[in-house]
């Protein structure tokens, strides 16, 4: 979390120096880094966002399923086969399916707009 904090601070400082005070979306943030750090900065920023989203989409359901099963006394863990931990794998699969279904809803408002605007 300390590293994440410093990444946020460095990105904010870079954007502030370039005169970008109101970033609306990730694409705008990536484009605003190009004049300061070159084309590679935007590609690295995009790769970081992709990595974070894939990591979150797989790890959060996994850890949630593990905690629920451990708390309720069911077998849990990816080191078990499906027959040994069916509730764990069902929860894990269900959470991924529900998350994917929410993202795929047509015209769903997936972005929360902030009331703080300059």
Q: What structural class do the secondary elements suggest? A: mainly alpha
> What is the radius of gyration computed over CA atoms, rounded to a whole number of angstroms?
19 Å
Low-confidence stretches: none
Number of helices: 4
Mean pLDDT: 83
Characterization of this structure:
The chain is mainly α and 118 residues long. The chain contains four helices and no strands. The chain has helices at residues 2-17, 26-37, 39-72, 86-103. α2 (26-37) crosses α3 and α3 (39-72) packs across α4. The longest helix has 34 residues, at 39-72. It is elongated and about 55 Å long. The mean pLDDT is 83.
In short:
It contains four helices and no strands. By secondary structure, the protein is an all-alpha fold.
């Amino acid at each position: 979390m300390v590293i994440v904090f410093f990444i946020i601070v460095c990105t904010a400082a870079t954007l502030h120096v370039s005169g970008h005070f109101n970033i609306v979306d990730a694409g705008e943030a990536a484009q605003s880094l190009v004049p300061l750090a070159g084309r590679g900065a935007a590609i690295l920023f995009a790769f970081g966002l992709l990595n974070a989203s894939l990591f979150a989409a797989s790890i959060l359901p996994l850890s949630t399923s593990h905690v629920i099963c451990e708390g309720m006394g069911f077998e849990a863990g990816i080191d078990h086969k499906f027959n040994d931990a069916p509730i764990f794998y069902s929860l894990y699969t269900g959470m991924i399916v529900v998350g994917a279904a929410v993202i795929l809803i047509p015209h769903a408002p997936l972005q929360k707009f902030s009331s703080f605007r300059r």
